[in-house]
Amino acid sequence: QVQVVESGGGLVQAGGSLRLSCAASVRPFSNYIMGWFRRAPGKEREFVAAIASIGAGTYHADSVKGRFTISRDNAKNTVYLQMNSLKPEDTAAYYCAAGQRFPRDGTWYARSSMSSMYDYWGQGTQVTVSS
After folding, report:
1. What would the mean pLDDT of 115-130 be, rounded to a whole number?
2. Is there a contact between 91 and 122 (Cβ–Cβ < 8 Å)?
3. Where are the beta strands (DSSP E) in 8-67?
C-alpha cells in the first residue's frame, strides 16, 4: 500500500522559515512528478509547487515564487518544500502528492497544478504563520 507522509509543519512568525518534507513509498520514486498543494480555512485547495521526475525541473505558483523552493532526493524517496519569508496568508494545511500520468516531455508543468493529475496524496501538515 502506497504511503505519502508529510512532516515539518508548525507555528512560525511572519518572516520566518520552515522546511516541509514528504516521504512517498511509490516505486520507482524517480518516475513520479511530486507536488505540493495547500488549503487554507474556508478556501479551495491551491497549487504551490511541483518537481519533475527527470532533470528536476520545477514549477512554482506565482504566490510563492521567490520565497518557496521545491526539491527532491530520489535516493531517499523524499520531496522537500523550503519556505522562506513566510506570511500570515501562507497559513494552511499543506499536502504532498505523487503522480505518474504526466506527459514525458517538457509540457508536464502545464498540468502540474491540476490536482486530478496526482494519484496519491498525504494527510497534510499544518503551517501557521503568526503576524
Report:
1. 97
2. no
3. 10-13, 18-24, 33-39, 46-51, 58-60
Residue among 83, 95, 92 at smallest CA distance from 128: 92
Strand partners, 96: 36
Take residue 33 and report the three cell numbers written for it. Answer: 512528478
Q: Which three cell numbers stand for residue 120?
A: 496519491
Average pLDDT of the chain to the nearest whole number: 95
User: What distance in Å separates the CA atoms of residue 82 and residue 103, rounded to the nearest whole number?
Assistant: 26
Q: What is the mean pLDDT of residues 26-48?
A: 95
Q: Which strands form 78-83's sheet, in the order they lie side by side?
A: 4-7, 18-24, 78-83, 68-73
